[in-house]
Amino acid sequence: MANARLDIGAKVAIKKPQLNILIAFLQDSGYLTIGPRVRDNAVTYAPIDTLEDLPRGYDSEQERAHYRLIRADHQRYFDAAPGSDSWKKFLFPPRSRLFEACRENGRWRTNLPAEQVPQYAFIGVRPCDLAAIRVQDHVFMRQDFVDPIYKARREKILILAVSCTHPNSTCFCTSMGTGPKATSGFDLSLTELEDVFLVEVGSEAGSGALQSLELDHATAYRLQLAETALQKAERSIQRRIENIEAVPELLHNNLEHPLWDEVGSHCLSCTNCTQVCPTCFCWDVEDLDDLSGDKTRRERIWDSCFNPSYSYIAGGNTRPTTKSRYRQWLTHKVSTWINQFGESGCVGCGRCITWCPAKIDITADIKKFQEATA
Question: Which of 123, 124, 191, 343 holds its CA 20 to 30 A away from the CA of 260?
Answer without folding.
Answer: 343
